[in-house]
Design a protein that fits this description.
By secondary structure, the protein is of the alpha+beta class. It has a single domain, classed as 2-Layer Sandwich (Ribosomal Protein S5, domain 2). 34% of the residues lie in helices and 31% in strands. It is built from four helices and ten strands. The strands form three sheets. Strands 1-2-4-3 form a four-stranded mixed beta sheet, covered by helices on one side. A four-stranded mixed beta sheet has the order 5-6-10-7, covered by helices on one side. A two-stranded antiparallel ribbon has the order 8-9. The radius of gyration is 16 Å and the shape is globular.
Length: 195
């Protein structure tokens, strides 16, 4: 089983994350930020990566540390569960429609972290979550997971739909990328021989 558990305790957050890349999309998520929990649940369900995520953060200040540190812990757990990345498909992409919104997500589990973000919001908050934190989540996640990640909302009006289509797109692209390719199950998917 490709699993990992990460614990991250700082003066700002106390986080525990467990992932199973070969799961069914089962999740238990508690961060103290309702909309963020909803997005992480979508990420788990549509990637089929089982996720157990708990965060006790300094929400009396704001959500920044909770969102950032959760992203770092989750990305680290996925990287650890992938180990040497042997046999994975490596690349994934998804067009993610949600009503009037369409978001395109493409990623490469390359070991070269990068985020290209072409998504905008017209309101500053969704529920109690600051919309500026979405870009920061994806950036921190990509850095810790070691992936190149491109997210572009092609069009959309509803801010909830825009955020959710990005998370669901990431989920579906991750599902493709972390799956074992039966034609190359014993090979590192790189001509360099390492990722």
């Amino acid at each position: 089983m490709r699993t990992a558990t990460i614990r991250r305790d700082t003066s700002e957050t106390k986080i525990a994350v467990t992932v199973n890349l070969d799961g069914t999309g089962a999740y238990a998520v508690t961060t103290g930020v309702g909309f963020f929990d909803h997005m992480l649940e979508q990420l788990s369900r549509h990637s089929l990566i089982d996720m157990d995520v708990t965060c006790d953060g300094d929400l009396h200040i704001d959500q920044h540390h909770t969102v950032e540190d959760t992203a770092l812990a989750l990305g680290s757990a996925i990287a650890q569960a992938l180990a040497d990345k042997r046999g994975i498909r490596r690349y994934g992409d998804a067009l993610s429609p949600m009503d009037e919104t369409l978001t395109r997500v493409a990623l490469d589990i390359s070991g070269r972290p990068w985020l290209v973000w072409k998504t905008e919001f017209t309101q500053t908050r969704l529920g109690e979550m600051d919309t500026e934190m979405f870009q920061h989540f994806f950036h921190s996640f990509a850095q810790a997971a070691g992936i190149t990640l491109h997210i572009e909302t092609l069009y959309g009006d509803n801010n909830h739909h825009i955020a959710e289509s990005a998370f669901k797109g990431l989920a579906r692209a991750l599902r493709q990328a972390v799956e074992i390719d039966p034609r190359k199950a014993d090979a590192i998917p790189s001509t360099k021989g390492t990722l």
